[in-house]
Amino acid sequence: MKSSTEKTGRVLPFLQNEEHYFKRGIHAFQKRELDRAVKYLKKAIDMDPTQGVFQCQLAVVYSDTGEYEESNRLLWHVLEDLDSSLSECYFFLANNYVYLGLFDKAKEMAESYLTMQPEGDFSKDARDLLDLLLEDEEEENNQQEEELIMKYEKSERLMKTKQFAEADQILEEIIADYPDYLPAKCQLARLLHEQDRSEEALALVKDIAREHMYLPALCQLAVLYAEMGRDTEAQETAEMLKNIIPLDKSHLFYAASTLCRLGFYEESRLLFERYVKRHAPTQEGFHLFFGASAYQSGRTIQAEQQWKQSMNKDNHTAGELLKHWKEDGLSTEAVQSAVKEHYKL
After folding, report:
1. What sections of the sequence does the record tag as coiled-coil (predicted)?
2. Tens-place pLDDT, residues 174-204
3. Exposed, middle or buried: residue 113 (CB in 10 Å: 0-12, 13-18, 19+)?
4. With the CA atoms of 28, 34, 39 and 42 taken in that order, what torsion angle do they form, in degrees rounded to the nearest 10?
5. Phi-psi category of 140—alpha, beta or left, where left has phi over 0 and alpha has psi -120 to 50?
């Protein structure tokens, strides 16, 4: 008996369309293979970026990996730009805001979901969430803090899309209302630098570093000096940074990545090792920077391990570095260039 191929004289292709990758992403997520789930869902989105369901599912995966802000960014993108009828986005936002400690915002999102879907798939969970939130109402100062964080997050989103005037207005408002909120001042310095107002940025960061000994400001100061060609001052500031062991997890990552950016690779590598002994890496670029520090310190096995982990998280730069390393050898300049490209001031 002849096969279907012999009868028709042709081979039917196996189509790998966006639905195929979406289903693979769902399957990986159900098996708790979260890195693979992210990989396949991103492929589905690349093939059809207009499908809100794809991006909503990726946001759910990011919630499971603890990347709540990135999850929220995707969910708001779906609601504002793709499909405002995807009511489940509000439920997922509510859960994310709970984990971020923004309880009033979580309450608002849960209520929005129930308004749209009073008998929906998540209606019971949404009501349970509201009951928990209502048991412990936030005081007025906590409400103000939530509003502050929301405004700060909005300024970050605006900066990513180069809407500098709008971001500047929000940051100036935050600084006027909350003069002790140092992240907003550092964010404003970054904004000034991106607008080629580096001297103003430098003056602002120097004031923060001098008055408060705020580590992110010290990191910014060192990199600003380096990018402005003031190498002696960059070196002096980096020496100060090398003598600090941050306790805060985000500060530890910032110090390690900054020392990598400035070329202090062994010191950077040791801070990254300290980090992984205490915390699970979640920051974008973590494995890329750790691998660069290891490679430049002569720890090639460690570098390869870190860059492979970075590749698994869809960091194409790490893949390019590994490719050149295996084929032609890898120069110090190429590694430095990759670090500069991904470092955020």
Report:
1. 127-155
2. 999 999 999 999 999 999 999 999 999 999 9
3. buried
4. 100
5. alpha
Residue 283, classified by CB atoms within 10 Å of its CB into exposed (0-12), middle (13-18) or buried (19+), is middle
Contact 57, 22 (CB under 8 A): yes
Quote the domain boundaries for residue 275: 246-345
Cα(95)–Cα(88) distance, integer angstroms: 11
Tokens representing residue 246 in the block: 């941050």
Q: Which of 189, 214, 244 is the last residue of a domain?
A: 244
d(CA 55, CA 127): 25
**What is the Cα 125 distance to its own chain's centre?**
28
Q: Give the residue among 43, 68, 306 at the shortest CA–CA distance from 321.
A: 306
Question: Would you call 258 helix, strand, or coil by DSSP?
Answer: helix
b/e per residue, 74-90, with b = 16+ CB within 10 A? Answer: bbebbbeebbeebbbbb
If DSSP codes are grouped into helix, strand and coil, which group holds residue 67? coil
Q: Are 132 and 180 in contact (CB under 8 A)?
A: no
319 vs 197: CA distance, rounded Å:
35
Asked, for residue 266, whether it belongs to a domain, the answer is yes
Of 201, 223, 244, at which residue does a domain stop? 244
Q: What is the largest CA-CA distance in the chain?
A: 86
Q: At which residue do the structure tokens 């995966």 appear?
A: 61
DSSP 304: H
Domain count for the chain, please give it. Answer: 3
4-44 pLDDT, tens digit per residue, is 444 444 443 445 677 888 888 888 888 888 888 888 888 88
Q: Are residues 61 and 153 in the same domain?
A: no
Rounded to the nearest 10°, the torsion over CA 219, 222, 224, 230 is 180
Give the number of residues written for the chain: 345
